[in-house]
Amino acid sequence: MLVIKSRKRYMEFGVVFIHWSVYMGGMATPTPTTRDRIVQAASRLFYGEGIRAVSLDAIAEKAGVTKRTLYYHFASKDDLVAAYLEARDQPNLALFKRWFAQTDGGLTDKVRGIFRHLATSARSPKWRGCGFLRTTAELANLPGHPAIAVGRSHKKGFEGWLAITFEEAGIADPSALARQIVLLLDGSFATVLLHRDPSYMETAGDAAAILITAALAARIETCPGEITNRGDGEQKAT
Questions:
Q1: How many angstroms from the chain centroid is the CA of residue 232?
Q2: pLDDT one-digit tens code per residue, 213-226
Q3: Which helix (H) or strand (E) is 139 found in, with range?
Q4: Number of domains observed in the structure of the chain
Q5: CA neighbours within 13 Å on the CB side: how many for 209?
Q6: Does 14 map to a domain?
Q7: CATH number of the structural domain spanning residue 166
Q8: What is the SS3 assignment for 19?
Q9: Position 53 pLDDT exceeds 70
Q10: CA-CA 20 to 30 A from 219: which of 21, 27, 158, 176?
Q11: Inter-residue contact 76 to 147 (CB < 8 Å)
């Protein structure tokens, strides 16, 4: 079980480094480097078609570089697959946090909001599920692959951020609750990809809300006394 030892430890996984494009806004966009172009091309092809279905020749062609140039920046396809996931890591975590922050209500509503936003994304014809889980499935026979390590770190980063958030809300076992929410989230990714029905993701969000509501109620029951408003729509026992 994931055990909270310190906020600093979790933030090593969860601290947000948003890609420069997020900050540039209306400013002129810098010309991407050759390496950036290769990773962007690989990202579009890997996410759209799968890891094994895409050749390095196809990536080089889409990036507008020679295969020799591609090998100058990446020693192997394995390295490029890992770079593909690394490029998705912090932007994805930042997006989840933004959805959480922008959703009205308290803790329960905010976590459910993540599932709601994901369901909206899943309704796009370009949606292909979770790139980290799909890549892991394709590389299931290669547990030591560098991309697997990137995916594991990403998932732990999200789980760690949830655990910190629940700890700050006064929940008794934030690590256990964070793990339960991650299981619901990743399970909904797989189920929606199978059935092509995003409502499963909304249902998973409702289940997450039930777990969080129960955890908040247990917090109040075990800490009787004056109930004060936390300022986030939830109440806190003092």
A1: 23
A2: 999 999 866 665 54
A3: none
A4: 1
A5: 17
A6: yes
A7: 1.10.357.10
A8: coil
A9: yes
A10: 158
A11: no
